[in-house]
Amino acid sequence: MPNSSCCQVGGIFTNVRGEEFLKINVVSVPEKGKANEELLKFLAKSFRIAKSAIEIVAGETDRCKKLRITGSTEGIKAKISQWLEEEK
């Protein structure tokens, strides 16, 4: 979600079809890819991977995005699990 006060995980969002998404708040405005860039930087830093290992495969101009993340999945799964536990 753009225009947030800080870049952080904002919980879980469930759409009308019951699909769950990780919600991440970013500070940057959604102009000229600034919010997307901030999202990729935040995830790369959080997962301790290169920014180039994360690709937006769908939803580049939408609030809901589908990402492809390459590399070791163990650290990524652990970080996502940590975020989900913090939201409970």
Summarize the structure.
The chain has 88 residues and is of the alpha+beta class. Helices cover 33% and strands 25% of the residues. It has one domain (8-87).
What value does the average pLDDT take?
A: 87
Number of helices: 2
Strands, total number: 4
Q: Show unreliable segments.
A: none
**Proportion of residues in helical segments:** 25-40%
Radius of gyration: 13 Å
The biggest beta sheet reads: 2 strands, antiparallel
Widest sheet: strand ordering: 1-2
Beta-strand content estimate: 25-35%
Description:
The chain is an alpha+beta fold. The protein has one domain. It has two helices and four strands, in the order ββαββα. It has a two-stranded antiparallel ribbon with strand order 1-2. A hairpin with a 5-residue loop joins β1 (about 10-15) and β2 (about 20-25). The chain is globular, with a radius of gyration of 13 Å. It starts with 7 loop residues before the first strand and ends with a helix. The mean pLDDT is about 85.
List the helices and strands and how they pair.
Layout: E1 8-14, E2 20-25, H1 34-47, E3 54-58, E4 66-69, H2 73-87
Antiparallel strand pairs: 1-2, 3-4
